[in-house]
Amino acid sequence: MSESTKQRPWRVVCVHGAGGGAWEWNIWARVLRARGIDVVSRDLEAGPEGLAATCFADYRAQVADWCREAGHDGAPLALIGASLGGLLALAAAVEARAAALVLVNALPPAGVVRRLPDVAPAAVVPWGSRRSLHGTRRAMPDADDAAALYAFRRWRDESGQAIAEAQAGIVVEWPHCPALVVAGEHDDEIPAFASRALAVRLGADFECLPGASHVGPLLGAQASSVAVRVADWLAARQRA
Questions:
Q1: How confident is residue 116, by pLDDT bands cut at 50, 70 and 90?
Q2: Which residues contact 61 (CB under 8 A, 6 or more apart)?
Q3: CA gyration radius for the chain?
Q4: In sequence order, which residues have a C-beta less than 8 Å from that of residue 67 and are 6 or more positions away?
Q5: pLDDT-based confidence at 5, cuts 50/70/90?
Q6: How many whole angstroms separate alpha carbon 117 and alpha carbon 13?
Q7: What is the total count of domains within the chain?
Q8: 162-208 per-position pLDDT tens digit
Q9: Which CATH number characterizes residue 148's domain?
Q10: Residue range of the domain that includes 67
Q11: Phi, psi dihedral angles at 81 (to 5 degrees)
C-alpha cells in the first residue's frame, strides 16, 4: 500500500452469497463502520433477461461496477465476499485493484480443489419462494431464533446458471494483495479443507471458526466477534 493511502480509512465492498442480499452484512457493517471503515453493500440483481438467464459474468460485472464507484476518490479498497460472493470478490479483485481481500466460506475457483459436489440447480433455485423456517433453522445451527427468523424472511430465489458455472470452476486472475480466508468448521457446503486450500493458493492468512456453519460467520453467534477480528486484520494491513 502506498504512503498516500496508508492513513486513509478503508472503503470496503461486501458481496453477499447466493440466495441472500446486502442484509447478510448488517452485523459486519455496524462493526466496521464503528471502526471508521466505509462499507458498501448492495444486492446483486438479475440480468436484463431475467434471473434464469443470469450468469456469473453478470454478477461479476456488477461487483466491478461497485468497486469502480467505491474507489473513485482513491480510498484504499478492500473486497469482502461470502460463499458465491467470495468467488465473485476474488474474480473481481485484480480489475478492482483491491488492496486487501477477505473471503468467507468462499466457493473456490478452478484449480484449487477437486470439484465439490454439484447441487444440480434448476434454472431458478427457489430458495426464496419455497423457503421454510425449519429449513432456515437447520442451516443456521449456530444462530439464535431471532437471527434465523430474520434470514427466513429475506432469502431470495437464485440463478441456477450462475451457481452451476461457479460449481464447474471459474478461472480467475490471482491477486497479489494481502488476503484473509475465513472458514466455518461445520460448513456443510464449502468444507474447511477447501477454504484452507484456497488460502494456501493465495498465500493468505487463514482462520477456521470452531462450530461455525456456512452462514455462521455473518449471521451466527460469532458474527460480531469475527467482524471485529476482520477490522483488526484490515487495520494491521494498513499499518504495514
A1: low
A2: none
A3: 17
A4: 13, 77, 79, 92, 95, 96, 98
A5: very low
A6: 29
A7: 1
A8: 999 999 999 999 999 999 999 999 999 999 999 999 999 999 999 99
A9: 3.40.50.1820
A10: 3-239
A11: -140, 150
